[in-house]
Specification:
19% strand, Rossmann fold, 8 helices, alpha/beta, 7 strands
């Protein structure tokens, strides 16, 4: 049993509608469906089923060949994205947690997709600095929420013009609009950095951005022009 993440139980839309989206849309089959079921039964955080369905709709339209993921966890979303593009692409995914790395490797082996996935072990900021500019078609960022702000400059740099960055869990169970003084101290930095991140990207002239209320908020960013986001590298204040 994993430590409870209370945000998993705070819907950002009507709870009945959320449950409908999770149960009445097409379900996964086979081994990847088994992984999703196991994670949900054991309270292991993975993308919720409405996001699964959305990715299965979106990625075949985008047809990305090079996919980057920041935050592998048990490897479910990496496997899902690879399946969504019918094994025609390559996923590079970054994870620092040894337990998650072990589970992800086992799942990749079970699914027989090891040749199509590169798992980078260690700190995301260190790996992101090493990735070649303009090399990636699609990025999925689902890691430490307080780090989204500081990870963004390198994510933007490695993304091709016209590429898409999807950022998960930006609404914090609907608490993103709360006054910071009302937010518990343990998540106050996350609240502040997410708001700072949204303030930059939602109306930037080099980005086309859409925030959709699936899961705990999925932010979609298309890179339209090059821009300088180095000011966001001031990370830990």
């Amino acid at each position: 049993m994993h430590k409870l993440n209370e945000m998993m139980d705070k819907p950002v839309i009507n709870e009945d509608v959320r449950n409908f989206l999770r149960t009445n849309q097409k379900q996964l089959n086979g081994k990847i469906g088994d992984i999703e079921k196991w994670a949900n039964e054991n309270r292991v955080p993975i993308i919720p089923h409405e996001t699964v369905v959305f990715f299965n709709w979106l990625l075949p339209l985008l047809k990305p060949e090079q996919i980057l993921e920041v935050g592998t966890a048990i490897g479910f979303s990496a496997a899902l994205m690879l399946e969504a593009v019918h094994m025609e692409g390559h996923v590079t995914t970054i994870e620092r947690n040894p337990d998650m790395i072990s589970k992800a490797k086992a799942n990749f082996k079970t699914l027989g997709i090891e040749e199509n996935i590169t798992l980078l072990e260690g700190q995301a900021d260190e790996w992101l600095e090493k990735i070649e500019s303009d090399s990636t078609d699609f990025i999925f960022m689902d890691s430490a929420k307080a780090k989204y702000y500081s990870f963004f400059p390198d994510c933007f740099r490695v993304l091709k013009i016209g590429g898409v960055l999807a950022v998960d869990d930006v609404l914090q169970g609907g608490t993103i609009l709360d006054d910071e003084k009302e937010v518990p101290k343990r998540v106050r930095k996350i609240h502040r950095k997410l708001n700072e991140f949204l303030a930059v990207v939602l109306d930037h002239p080099s980005l086309d951005t859409s925030l959709i209320p699936v899961g705990d908020g999925l932010l979609l960013i298309t890179k339209r022009d090059d821009a300088d986001f180095d000011f966001m590298r001031q990370t830990d204040k």
